[in-house]
Design goal:
The chain is α/β, with parallel strands linked by helices. It has a single domain, classed as TIM Barrel, CATH 3.20.20.70. It has nine helices and eight strands. An eight-stranded parallel β-barrel has the order 1-2-3-4-5-6-7-8, surrounded by seven helices. One of its GO terms (molecular function) is deoxyribose-phosphate aldolase activity. One of its GO terms (cellular component) is cytoplasm. It holds the Pfam family DeoC.
Length: 218
């Protein structure tokens, strides 16, 4: 099993995704031994059935991509996704709260999702770092640690830009060795992946997983 492949959440979050494309995504993940497939909530059940009997995990997104739904909705999305077969949940924080310095609210919401997933699924917290400054990225990372999350994650891939080496480094330095750091958005080559891992990433969200593996073998 490739160490590189086990870093990758093989991702298809486009609103245009079809059942056939989701099934192909799972087949590719099984073939290349990716850690998970990451799909929108509507496809969790299908992906879970397609991956049954394989080591491939099922990852989905909550409050995606804006982070602006209510805490109750995010909690429901989490429990619903787990019931449908999700092993990992990537939740988007309320970015407006972060920008306004409402850190108690940010932390409480993360905690609510973590509690809904406890013992059933990992929780990754999407900070959308392209919309935050350094201090806000640090504080959002601290909130994630305090709330009991398993990972912090850079980006949805649907905002200004995706992961940067600097954001990954800041997140890693803030959370320490105890949490995972997921770099997502714009990681398309083996060189991109290597730079993110060097900065502290332990998981990569990418739609280009197969080409990354091919690139790494060159």
């Amino acid at each position: 099993m490739s160490k590189i492949s086990q870093l990758i959440d093989h991702t298809l979050l486009a609103p245009t995704a079809t059942a056939t494309q989701i099934e192909t995504l799972v087949q590719e993940a099984v073939e290349h031994e990716f850690k998970t497939v990451c799909v929108n909530p509507a496809w969790v059940g299908l992906a879970s059935r397609a991956a049954q009997g394989t080591p491939v995990g099922i990852c989905t997104v909550v409050g995606f991509p804006l982070g602006a739904s209510t805490t109750a909705v995010k909690v429901f999305e989490t429990t619903d996704a787990i019931a449908n077969g999700a092993d990992e949940v990537d939740m988007v924080i309320n970015i407006g709260w972060a920008l306004a310095g409402q850190w108690d609210d940010v932390e409480a919401e993360i905690r609510a999702v973590v509690e809904a997933a406890r013992g059933k699924a990992l929780v990754k917290v999407i900070l959308e770092t392209c919309l935050l400054d350094v201090e806000q990225t640090e504080e959002a990372s601290r909130c994630s640690v305090a709330a009991g999350a398993d990972f912090v994650k850079t980006s949805t891939g649907f905002s200004k830009h995706g992961a940067t080496v600097e954001a990954v480094r800041i997140m890693r330095e803030t959370v320490g060795p105890g949490l995972g750091v997921k770099a997502s958005g714009g990681v398309r080559t083996a060189e991109d992946l290597a730079r993110m891992v060097e900065a502290g990433a332990t998981r990569i969200g990418a739609s280009a997983g197969a080409s990354i593996l091919a690139d790494s073998a060159v």
